[in-house]
Structure formats: C-alpha cells, structure tokens
Design brief:
Layout: E1 11-13, E2 19-21, E3 41-42, H1 51-64, H2 72-84, E4 89-93, H3 96-106, E5 112-116, H4 121-128, E6 133-137, H5 148-153, E7 159-165, H6 174-184, E8 187-191, E9 199-200, E10 203-204, E11 211-215, E12 228-232, H7 235-244, H8 266-277, H9 279-297, E13 303-305, E14 319-323, H10 331-340, E15 343-344, H11 359-362, H12 371-379, E16 380-383, H13 391-407, H14 409-415
Parallel strand pairs: 3-15, 5-6, 5-7, 7-8, 8-11
Antiparallel strand pairs: 1-2, 4-12, 9-10, 11-12, 13-14, 14-16
Helix pairs in contact: 1-8, 2-8, 3-4, 9-13
C-alpha cells in the first residue's frame, strides 16, 4: 500500500522490538492499532551509573553503620559537586525542595518574592509554605527564562528577593538580574534544578546570585534517588544552611538556631557519587539524542526544538519542542496521540503556577500580565531521551508526529477526537 500523506513507509524497529509500518491512519494506535512501543517510553527515566560501584559503596555504608548525619559519603559527594561547579560550598539536602526551603529561610526572605510562573510548582510552594507571597513575572518567549522588564515591573515596597530559574538548563539572564537586585537591594537566588553541570560563558552554575539550588531527584541528569543541594560562595550563608538542615545543632546538645531535618542520607550520597562519575557519559548520550531529534524534527516545520548555544555548557537533559500556532494539530492533541503509542510526552509546567491550586484562587488576576507564559505553556511538549531512547526510537517518534501533522483534521475525525 502506498504511504499516506507523502510520508515514506517507515519500519519501526524500536527498543521493545515492536515492528510497525505506518501506511495509513489505520496503523495508528489512536485508531485501534497496537502501539509502537510495547512498554511506555518515559521522559524522565532515571540515569544509572555503575551498579558494581554503587553496591561497593552500599556495603561500606552498611559495615560502617554510619547511615546519616553528615557522614563521609555525603561529605565526599558535596566536595565532588562543589569541585565540578567551581564553587566554595555545596550543602547537600534530602531533596531539592528542602534546599529551596532552607535557602529561602537562610536568606531571610519575607513579604513578596518575584519568580516565574513558568516553573515547577515547588519553586512557588517553597515560598508560600513559609508565608511569603509569590509574585509571578512573565518570561522571554525565546528563552523561557524570566523577563527582566517584567521582574522590574513587579517590584513593590514589600519585595525582598527574586528567585530566577535556569529553565531546561539554559542559564537565566544573570547579569541583568544582578543589576536589578543590586539597584533595589534585593536578594537573588536561582532554582538550578535543570542546570546541574551547566555554565554561562565558562562560569559554572552555582556562582550566580546569593546561592543556587540543584536537584538530585530520580528524574534529574544526576540523581541520588532523591536529594538536592545549596551551592554558594557565601561562607556565612553556607554555615547557616548547614545548621538549618540539622535542627540547628552546632555540636552535641547545642542547638543554636531554628532548623529542620533536611539531611541527605549516606545511601543517597552513594547513588549520587556513582552517577556523578558517569556524568560525562550521561551528557554525551543526551547530546547524541538532542542532535538526532534536531535532525528528524528538521523535516517538520511546525515543530521546533529549542536551541542550546555552544558558547555555554549544557547537559541536554530535556528535549523541548515548541508547536507552531500554524500547526494543523494543537500540542495537546499531539501529546494524546503519542501517549496512545506509549510515548509519554509531557506538557511541562502547564498551565503555569498561576493557574494551579492554590494560586489560581489566591491571585486570580495574575495571568493577565503573563501573556508569554500562557503562550509557551500551551505550545511546549517534552519528549523522551536519555539512555532509554535509541536513535531508532527517536526517528520513529518524529515520523509519527510528521504523520499526525500532515494528516491534520482528517486524522482527528477518523479517530473520533473531534
């Protein structure tokens, strides 16, 4: 049978050994055909380093009986992370959110703090959890990072700080944000959960603002099962953060500050160390996949993969695609079709924090000043990558999307989606 819509018949030989030829819309899973992938292909499948190295460290931890409370494995992990980022201090925590909570309190943020709405909701929650009002600013539609003019427009007499985000590992406008923060005497910190190992003009993440927060959640480029860290060159801030993550203890029976239990365990640090040793290999795989997506998506003018500039170091951990407003199908329909094929593409950060509970009720008018946030949130999809995705998988995913888009409304009518 001749291929449909001018797309060459494609033999899909994918990771799970499913073979599928798309020759007509009948061959698509939304119309009852078997999915292209036998098992779900996830966006955030964990990267794993050497199993043997991890088990060796785990045995050492077990034999030492030192399981938590700033053990030697945590200290080794902190030192390695600090060295990679050329920063003085790495304070490891049990999660990235715990690191956010501690940083916010250590910086004595209060009143109002400006941040992007287009970010993971934890950034806003960490503020609201401490009775600080998150004030949402708009983003630059080209970079998806904070728009500095929007930040400046939202400063009030109650503003004490800015939390910027290095979204997708692309560094925020650090020079411009520093200028605003310095001019208005505001604290400036960064949520760098996406930006582990990234740089801006040879200056590593961790060296911007008062401090930066990284995440070692299982889905991040380097994971410690669960974990996070505060990176800073500020000696006093690092000292405060270390006290806060351990209930304010400064030695046996000597509580000197308010604190919480934000410590990273030894076994989590062991996983972090093993994956950190594999970081170069992980980023190489990510870059290979990114280049493959760029190649195949180049055949689909309605889809654009975001750029990473070669003058900055990136970890290529996210494959972020923008769906053109001229596309025959909107982003949500493309995502639904991919899900039917067991490709679990994601609508990241939709509809923006301002559209999520509790913020949509607390600040119902916030969205009126966030046009770029709304537009980007409605057009972005994130595709699977990492060691779980092969070039054959990537080619198959892109070919499916090409078929969807060239079929357009006819495809949706046949599938009963209209």
């Amino acid at each position: 049978m001749a291929p449909l819509f001018g797309v060459s018949s494609e033999l899909f030989s994918v990771t799970e050994t499913i073979i599928k030829i798309i020759a007509s819309t009948r061959d698509l899973a939304i119309n009852g055909a078997p999915p292209a992938f036998a098992k779900p292909l996830h966006v955030g499948r964990p990267h794993l380093g050497s199993k043997a190295q991890f088990l060796e460290l785990a045995e050492q931890i077990y034999d030492s009986r030192w399981l938590t409370n700033d053990g030697p494995t945590v200290q080794e992990f902190e030192a390695a992370v600090a060295k990679l980022h050329s920063v003085k201090h790495c304070v490891a925590t049990c999660s990235g959110t715990a690191a956010l909570d501690i940083a916010i309190r250590a910086l004595d943020l209060q009143g109002e703090v400006i941040l992007p709405s287009y970010t993971f909701v934890a950034t806003a929650h960490a503020l609201k959890w401490q009775n600080i009002t998150p004030v949402f600013a708009d983003i630059d539609p080209k970079t998806h990072n904070l728009n500095v003019d929007s930040v400046r427009a939202r400063v009030s007499s109650k503003t004490t700080g800015i939390i910027a985000v290095h979204l997708w590992g692309r560094v925020a406008p650090v020079d411009e944000l520093k200028a605003v923060a310095d001019e208005l005497s505001l604290k400036l910190m960064y949520d760098a959960a996406h930006a582990f190992g990234c740089s801006y003009h040879h200056r590593m993440v961790g060296n911007f603002g008062d401090c930066e927060i990284v995440s070692f959640h299982a889905t991040k480029v380097v994971n410690s099962f669960e974990g996070g860290a505060l990176l800073t060159n500020n000696d006093e801030l690092a000292k405060k953060a270390r006290l806060m993550r351990n209930f304010g203890f400064a030695g046996f029976d000597n509580v000197v500050a308010l604190g919480t239990n934000g410590k990273m365990t030894e076994i989590c640090a062991a996983m972090g160390l093993v994956n950190l040793r594999a970081f170069s290999d992980i980023t190489s795989v990510n870059r290979r996949n990114y280049d493959s997506y760029r190649k195949y998506l180049g055949e689909i003018p309605e889809l654009t993969c975001i750029d990473y500039q070669d003058c900055h170091k990136a970890n290529y951990h996210y494959i972020v695609v923008e769906v053109s407003s001229a596309c025959s199908l909107d982003r949500d329909k493309i995502v639904s079709m991919l899900h039917a094929e067991n490709v679990l593409a994601r609508r990241y950060f939709w509809p923006g924090c301002h559209g999520m509970a509790p913020y949509r009720n607390l600040y119902p008018e916030a969205g009126e000043s966030l046009p770029n946030t709304r537009d980007v949130a409605e057009r972005v999809l994130v595709l699977p990558t990492g060691e779980a995705a092969t070039e054959a998988d990537i080619k198959a995913i892109c070919n499916m999307m090409k078929v969807y888009i060239e079929a357009g409304e006819q495809l949706m009518l046949e599938s009963g989606s209209y």
